[in-house]
Amino acid sequence: MSSKTSSRTGETGAAVRDGTGASVLPGLGLCAAITAVAMAAQALEERIAGHPYVEALVLAILIGIAVRTAWTPDARFRTGIAFSAKQLLEVAVVLLGASLSLGAILASGPALLAGIVGTVVIGIGASVAICRALGLPPRMAILVACGNAICGNSAIAAVAPVIGAQPKDIAAAIAFTAVLGVLMVLGLPLFVPLAGLSDNQYGVLAGLTVYAVPQVLAATVPVSLLATQVGTLVKLVRVLMLGPVVVAFSLIAPRLPQEAGLEATGPKPRPGLTKLVPWFILGFLALATARSLGLIPDAAVKPLTQLAGVLTVLSMAALGLGVDVRVLARVGGRVTLAVTASLAVLVAVSLGLIRGLGIG
């Protein structure tokens, strides 16, 4: 998700709470227009070729990026774009819970759960080492490592206050995460033919490497429903690692060396439960539990899944509108190399886990 999306979340929520939700309409309308074009293009592909070569999810991202690069939406659009990229995205994730039984978690087995935890730990350690080797300051290294290993912008935003990161470091980490996250969504499906992955294996790979939960949808829906379900499940377990990681870094923070531009301050406040476990994860788990207990009838699953799909496409349009490809030139070569190398290590570790556990 883009830095503008993250920074305007409070503004969006306040607008809705204050009854001035009309302010979201211009941006929401822009995202809806891109969504309509993307879905129409997919329908045309299906009519001509029998199946879509490029899904509406991907088309929405690409169209959004093209629009954002050619034209920067002014202030009247930004609240609606932020609302679409965050709140609607989170609702889509919650609704997806209705299609997943929690029995799949138990069926995944303790080996996979332990592997996910190990992958996050190894990913953070390797990423910090790479960043420090490239000369990035300690706090910047931690931001990049947590963003790569856990959940992108959300992890960066959660860890930054407890380690006292500088605003410029936070902005650089988030800016590149926004771009690289989209590139991951677009490029990861290539691993299916290149690495000979099954749908189940690809779902595990996506869940272990893609930054945001909704981006897992964009990366897996074009492959199969099984890949989407497995990817979402693995990703949610990975996101739940954010709580322990934030607590761990809050304990480490006082031992970090003082950096130029940072004032010595007292202990940073630790984030509350809603920061460690986002509400939409709780909602997803609640619907998955209801589905597992038979409280959601079979007839309701398909409409809920379809609605989640439409909202996800709309959210991907907003995500694209938050990415200007020119930010690559502004984040610096060392940050670019550090994030890319860290992600490569994460992909390699994830593929090793898949092969090592014999996931079919």
Automatic annotation (TrEMBL):
Transmembrane domains' residue ranges: 20-41, 53-71, 91-107, 112-135, 141-163, 170-192, 204-227, 239-256, 276-296, 308-329, 335-354
Entry superkingdom: Bacteria
Subcellular location, record wording: Cell membrane
Topology in the lipid bilayer: Multi-pass membrane protein
Assigned keywords, A-Z: Cell membrane, Membrane, Transmembrane, Transmembrane helix
Record-level GO cellular component terms: plasma membrane
InterPro entries to which the protein is assigned, alphabetical: UPF0324_pro
Classification via Pfam families: Cons_hypoth698
Keyword Magnesium in record: no
PANTHER family the record matches: INNER MEMBRANE PROTEIN YEIH-RELATED (PTHR30106), UPF0324 INNER MEMBRANE PROTEIN YEIH (PTHR30106:SF2)
UniProt record similarity statement: Belongs to the UPF0324 family.
Full protein name: Integral membrane protein (TIGR00698 family)
Species per Swiss-Prot/TrEMBL record: Methylobacterium brachiatum
